[in-house]
Specification:
Shape: elongated
Radius of gyration: 22 Å
Strand content: 5-15%
Order of helices and strands: HHHEEHHHEHH
Helix content: 40-55%
Number of strands: 3
Distance between the termini: 66 Å
Strand order of the largest sheet: 1-2-3
Number of helices: 8
Length: 179
């Protein structure tokens, strides 16, 4: 007794005919995606490291995850940092207005206003985890994209910090800097 309706392909186990065009298309997509994995990873790691260096030049920012940058310890196309004194959501809005796509928190908390449980688990205080920024790169990104981010990000952070009463408390010593 069969639970599927249709033809009697494979001795009645399934109905329908294989979609050969999609099978061939999937094979070609896999071929293209894996054509130069090492080359893409090297390009991404270089851009990632430039982003990390530029972002960490901004005072009171910290890299999330291991400080090592080799392939065994960090994904080549992902940067995750925390910026003290601002909210990640405000940062994302300003970046979006500048044409920069980004996220706040970790990938597994995307869309949540709660601080990332991953960032909390690695020891980031909740108020620091709220100021997280995640940038993802792909093989279609260019060095000019990295230059643009590094041109815009410091000013955006400075503007948000200037509006923040928490930042004023940090800068005047009423609160201690955490990073």
């Amino acid at each position: 007794d069969t639970h599927q309706h249709g033809g009697a392909q494979e001795r009645g186990k399934r109905g329908g005919t294989e979609n050969m065009a999609q099978i061939v298309g999937l094979g070609k997509a896999i071929e293209l995606a894996t054509a130069d994995v090492e080359g893409h990873a090297k390009k991404l790691a270089h851009m990632r490291d430039r982003l990390i260096d530029g972002i960490l030049a901004i005072p009171h920012t910290v890299l999330n995850g291991t400080a090592l940058r080799d392939a065994a310890h960090r994904l080549p196309g992902t940067v995750n940092v925390c910026v003290e004194g601002i909210e990640g959501e405000s940062l994302l809005l300003r970046l979006d207005l500048a044409g920069i796509c980004a996220s706040s928190g970790s990938a597994c908390t995307s869309g949540s206003l709660e601080p990332s449980h991953v960032l909390l688990a690695i020891g980031r205080p909740a108020e620091i985890a709220h100021g997280s920024l995640r940038l993802s790169l792909s093989e279609t990104n260019t060095e000019e994209d990295v230059d643009y981010i590094l041109e815009k990000l410091p000013g955006i952070i400075a503007t948000l910090r200037d509006m923040s009463p928490v930042w004023e408390d940090l800068e005047t010593g009423r609160l201690a800097h955490r990073i």
